[in-house]
Amino acid sequence: MIFGKNCDFEGRTRLRVLGCAAGLLACSGAQAADLPLKAKGVEYVKVCSLHGAGFYYVPGTDTCVKLGGYLRTDLVVNSNSDFDPAYNGVAGARTRLGNAYTSRSRGDLNIDTRTATEYGTLRTFFETGLTWTDATYSGAGTGATVYSSIGGVQAPNNANSGAIAGGTVGVYSAFIQFAGFTIGKAISQFSVPWTNYPANNYDDLPGGTGWVTGVNQFTYTADFGQGITASFSAQDQVAHATTNVWNVSAATAAGLAAGAYGVNDIAGTATPDFISMLRIDQTWGLFQASLAAHDNHAAYYGGDETTGHPSDKWGWATQLALSIKNIPTGPGDTINMSGAYTRGASRYNFNENMSTTYAMYGGTGLPGVYQGIGLAGLSDSVFVNGSAQELTTTYGFRAGYTHNWDAYWNTGIYGGWGAVRYSSIAKSYICGAFIAGLSLSSGLAGCNPDYNYGALGLITRWTPVKNLTFSADMAYTMLDQKYAGGSTVTLPAQASIAKPAAVYELKDQSTVTLLLRAQRNW
């Protein structure tokens, strides 16, 4: 019996153990079904040190990206634009219609992507900006004024709030670089690294070109090592690289009074500008030589194709530039300089931010004369009906020196000078129009449309914290015209700038402009 009892106990125990085991299996199965699946690891943005500071890997790719840009506000004294002197329009007229100051705000964004490939780095770069600039008023000729257009938006809508509040959208760069090629909108290969700014913010220095907002191009750059490179480029010539191709036969008194020696008669694109450039960029500084070929492609003598047209004429431009670093005056001090010579390619000396017509008013000491005026015009070529194109020659230089007082303050001194020279045949065309249209008092003997343009400036910058800079840039600008002393012209009434029909003395003029800027880079 004892044996029987033991057997019964053991049997019941086994049943209990099996039951509990089954229950545990059932419970564990139910709990496993309720548990969440293991989450995938989060892909955090990783620093990409391969291409320099500020780059990060795009998650899930081998492409690195860098975001950058700036926010800038300007206040320009004695100018109707940013940052041009008062050399034409209502600003040059020096009437109550011109602005005592003009303000501008701009937000800029750039996106730089790079991917390492077996052909080298594949790069794309895009830069855009939103800009708002104050406009000004022009005369209506009826005792009323009209608020001028901003960014193609006519008043009064340009003063109202909206998507961009009447401002403008700019595409400054948009290019691809791969295996030595640059394709798209980028700074011209003719330009030097400091473009228009050897030490300045001022936009109007002759002595070389800039194309700071880019120009469409197809470029190949060969890298020979040790900082030596050579580039060969075909770039768009219409958007930036042409000043004026003047048909003097169609000149009007109103146009001549504003510095236009004819009507602009540029035809459609025929060929791009061809650029070659050699650069040596090393620790001591930089040397660069640039050469450009520019086709002057005129339209028609008259209103239709039956009137004929002048044949194309190729112009050219050359530039030499030098930058000297590590000079004895202090760490980081720099001297930048360049000089240019052009024939039929004036934009390569008078950069794309500069005007091509000048009408600067001032006083006069001549009796019976209303005021003084400086008139000048810039072209690539001029012609009259039935003639060939006469190419315009220009030459000039610009330079700047920047001295760092300490880590927070620096000062720059800069200047530029440019000369415009017309051939004897071109002068005969222009002077004929001047005598007939404006009654030039000195006649053919006193007529000379050549001129010099110069600027000299001083800028001081304060950077209290990294990437935040406040600057004050003052520039003196001078127009030196070559008409005979005491010459006068009779100008028609110009309602838009509130100038009456009267006799004006042709004489040299000058102006001073001040730019106050705050800029935060990021």
Question: Quick summary of this structure?
Answer:
The protein contains four helices and 27 strands.
Count up the helices: 4
CATH architecture, please? Beta Barrel
Work out the count of structural domains.
Answer: 1
The level-1 CATH class = Mainly Beta
Sequence of strands across the biggest β-sheet: 2-3-4-7-8-9-10-13-14-15-16-21-22-23-24-27
Report the uncertain regions.
1-33, 155-164
Q: How much strand content do the residues show?
A: 35-45%
Largest sheet: 16 strands, antiparallel, barrel
For the termini, the CA-CA separation is 95 Å
Summing up helix and strand content along with how strands pair, one would put the structural category as mainly beta
CATH superfamily: Porin
Radius of gyration: 33 Å
Helical residue percent? Answer: 10-25%
Number of strands: 27
Mean pLDDT: 90
CATH fold category name: Porin
Give the overall shape, derived from the CA principal axes: globular
Structure description:
The chain has 522 residues and is mostly beta strands. A 16-stranded antiparallel β-barrel has the order 2-3-4-7-8-9-10-13-14-15-16-21-22-23-24-27. A four-stranded mixed beta sheet has the order 12-11-19-20, covered by helices on one side. It has a single domain, classed as Beta Barrel (Porin). The protein is built from four helices and 27 strands. The chain has helices spanning 2-34, 89-93, 253-257, 424-438, and strands at 56-57, 63-77, 101-117, 120-133, 137-139, 145-147, 168-178, 181-186, 215-225, 228-235, 245-247, 263-264, 273-282, 285-296, 313-325, 334-343, 357-362, 371-377, 381-383, 390-391, 393-404, 409-421, 451-465, 468-481, 488-491, 502-506, 509-521. InterPro entries: Porin_alphabac. Its main location: membrane. Belongs to the alphaproteobacteria porin family. Residues 1-32 form the signal peptide. Keywords: Cell outer membrane, Ion transport, Membrane, Porin, Signal, Transmembrane, Transmembrane beta strand, Transport.
